[in-house]
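> call design_seq(struct)
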């Protein structure tokens, strides 16, 4: 377990920035448990990432609008292999992604 936690922390530190496709959670998932055990709240600024440790703060910039939001990783995903992050509804709204459904983003891990 300690080795896994160490690798996860090193992954977060090693990833200065990442670009790729993002999407956001459907409102119907509001109230469901996330992989971290937290309850998904569509109005909270949270996100799912495949490898970043739970609790990692990430700045997400939607490249189409240039708008950014800070989110906390509290779930695993996205399920779609072509995407790098799933945003909460509130986070997607803040960056202007709601109408598009998905789009290219830049992720920056915050310390």
């Amino acid at each position: 377990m300690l080795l896994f936690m160490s690798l996860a922390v090193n992954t977060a530190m090693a990833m200065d920035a990442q670009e790729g496709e993002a999407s956001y959670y459907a409102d119907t998932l509001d109230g469901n448990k996330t992989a971290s055990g937290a309850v998904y709240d569509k109005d909270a600024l949270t996100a799912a990432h495949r490898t970043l440790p739970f609790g990692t703060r990430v700045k997400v910039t939607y490249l189409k609008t240039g708008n950014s939001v800070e989110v906390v990783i509290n779930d695993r995903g996205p399920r779609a292999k072509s995407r790098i992050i799933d945003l909460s509804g509130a986070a997607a709204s803040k960056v202007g992604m709601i109408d598009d459904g998905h789009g290219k983003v830049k992720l920056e891990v915050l310390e």
